[in-house]
Structures are given as structure tokens and as C-alpha cells.
Design a protein that fits this description.
Elements: E1 4-8, H1 15-28, E2 32-36, H2 45-52, E3 57-62, E4 71-76, E5 80-87, E6 91-98, E7 104-112, H3 117-134, E8 138-144, E9 154-155, H4 164-176, E10 179-181, E11 184-186, E12 191-192, E13 199-200, E14 203-208, H5 209-214, E15 218-222, E16 233-237, H6 259-269, H7 276-292
Parallel strand pairs: 1-2, 7-8, 11-15
Antiparallel strand pairs: 1-16, 2-4, 3-4, 5-6, 6-7, 8-14, 9-13, 10-14, 12-13, 15-16
Length: 293
């Protein structure tokens, strides 16, 4: 079971933040921790050991050159074997072998998107190119995206129409990258201004369909605000039934004259026995596997 924590820390430093992270890691028994907006060029190893609570970890950091941005990814050595690191302008990518349960190649991307919309779109395009080029299938993007998917995810003095271009482009990136925004439970918003009047859901964890096949029971849990403006996100198991995973079909398949016959013959060959909705759900899973082949 992959357990992961993501958080915009708004600057590494101060004993209260270090203690909070140490307590959170210990409580959640996390395997990977992703921090955004560290606002540091480089940290000493003692800080990493303090944040995690032990020295049984490895890490990669993308420092900042202007006291803004910066990301850190830490992982427990016994749970993740590192094969490759890719460091970009505002992201870190680790590729390796997840050693939790059945071992498999896993990619975790830690991103901090900032700037104007065109700059964020350029960041998303770069991540999509990385995924398309050589990322493993079991893929997880952890990010302060600084963008929302729908108007209800942001409360501010601006009217909702201001964000339409942002939501359209962000959703297009998620769709093109074949990523899923898995269910989020806990608080409705993740970032709050100190006065509490302006708030939004700009942090999230996106995963590939292969990740869902491996860890289908993961949920994004939004924790309390604590000493930070951003709430921590914890990817972990919860016994909440959100129904079957989405089944996607490409319109271009319909142009193949043999496609409908293929689907019909495969569907008729399945021999799942149970109530109607269960049979339907299981048949979709089998069909997904057949279409992939």
C-alpha cells in the first residue's frame, strides 16, 4: 500500500514546521513525502533527518535561485528503490521500484506550478512530454498546481468567469496526460488566506490508470490547517466506496469497421456470475484489458 504525503510548506524553516512534519510522518507511516515551495537553495542532511524523524531515508531537492519555489521529495529506503532522477526548473521526478507489496516500476513527479497561466501551461506541457517519452506506467503527479478544475473550487472576490480559461486548460492537461483526479475527502478547500475569506482547492494528487489498478482503494485526505496556509494531503486507504473507476473510449475506434464486432464478441465471451450491476462492472474491467492489448 503506497502511502504518500504532499504539502506546500511555504518555506522550510522553524522548529514548529519541522515538528509538525515529523509528527505527521510518524502518524501516517508514510513512504514518500513531497514538499513544494521550500524557498531554499539547499538544505543540510540534518534538516531532512529531523523532518522525517530518522536517517533511514533518501531525498532529492530542486532548490530555488530567488527565494521562491523549490521542491523536495523524500522517501523511505526500505519502500522505494531509486533508479533515476530528473530535475527540471520547478519539478523533481524520481523513477524506481516500489517495494510495497508486489514490486513494480513507479514514477513520482513533485511539481510547484507558479506564475501566470501561460507559464503554468508551459510547465504542464513539459510534464506531459516527460510522461509521454519515458515514464513508467505506474505514475503519480503530486503538485501545488495553482489552478482549479471548476469554479466551485475557489472562493474569492473575483467572479467565476475569470477562471474559465484556467479550468479549461487545466482539465485539458489532465485529460491529455491520461491522469485521474482520485476522490478527495476531508476539507473542501486546501489553501486559505489568513482571514479565511479567500480559499481554494489548488493542490491535488493525479495518478495514472495503472496506479489505480495497483492501488485502487487510495483516497486523498485533506488534513487540518495547522501552522500552514496549505493543508497537507495524505494519499492512503479509506473504506469509502466511490464506485468503479472510469472507463474511457476513444472516438477514433468507432471508425474501424471491426471494432463493434470485437467489443460484442468479447462481451459475449465473459462468464461473470452475479447481480446485474456487478456483472456490468466486472465486464468493463475485462473489456478494458482486452482493448489495451
Amino acid at each position: 500500500m503506497m502511502k504518500l504525503i504532499s504539502m506546500n510548506i511555504s518555506g522550510v524553516g522553524g522548529s514548529s514546521k519541522t515538528r509538525y512534519l515529523e509528527d505527521l510522518v510518524r502518524k501516517e507511516q508514510s513512504y514518500v513525502v513531497c514538499l513544494q515551495e521550500t524557498k531554499c537553495k539547499e538544505l543540510g542532511k540534518e534538516i531532512f533527518f529531523q523532518m522525517w524523524g530518522t536517517n533511514e531515508i533518501d531525498w532529492v531537492e530542486r532548490g530555488t535561485d530567488n527565494n521562491a519555489g523549490g521542491v523536495i521529495t523524500m522517501w523511505r529506503r526500505s519502500c522505494f528503490h531509486l533508479d533515476n532522477i530528473i530535475i527540471g526548473v520547478i519539478f523533481c521526478i524520481i523513477e524506481g521500484e516500489c517495494k510495497v507489496g508486489e514490486s513494480r516500476p513507479t514514477t513520482i513527479v513533485n511539481i510547484y506550478s507558479y506564475g501566470f497561466l501561460r507559464e503554468r501551461c508551459a510547465i504542464w506541457e513539459a510534464i506531459w512530454e516527460k510522461k509521454r517519452a519515458h515514464m513508467s506506467a505506474t505514475w503519480c503527479a503530486v503538485e501545488d498546481f495553482n489552478s482549479i478544475r471548476r469554479s466551485g473550487e475557489r472562493r474569492s472576490v473575483k467572479s467565476s468567469h475569470v477562471y474559465r480559461g484556467e479550468t479549461r486548460r487545466f482539465n485539458a492537461f489532465i485529460e491529455k496526460s491520461d491522469l485521474f483526479d482520485i476522490p478527495m475527502v476531508g476539507r473542501k478547500f486546501i489553501w486559505y488566506k489568513p482571514n479565511g475569506l479567500v480559499k481554494s482547492k489548488i493542490d491535488r494528487i493525479l495518478v495514472s490508470s495503472e496506479w489505480l489498478d495497483k492501488w485502487s482503494d487510495r483516497k486523498q485526505v485533506v488534513l487540518g490547517r495547522s501552522v500552514f496556509e496549505h493543508c497537507a494531503l495524505v494519499l492512503k486507504t479509506l473504506t469509502v466506496d466511490w464506485g468503479p473507476k472510469p472507463f474511457r473510449s476513444l472516438d477514433i475506434w468507432q471508425s474501424d469497421g471491426k471494432f463493434k464486432d470485437f467489443v460484442h464478441s468479447k462481451w459475449e465471451s465473459y462468464e461473470v456470475q452475479d447481480t446485474g450491476i456487478f456483472v456490468f462492472k466486472e465486464n468493463l474491467k475485462l473489456m478494458k484489458a482486452n482493448i489495451k492489448v
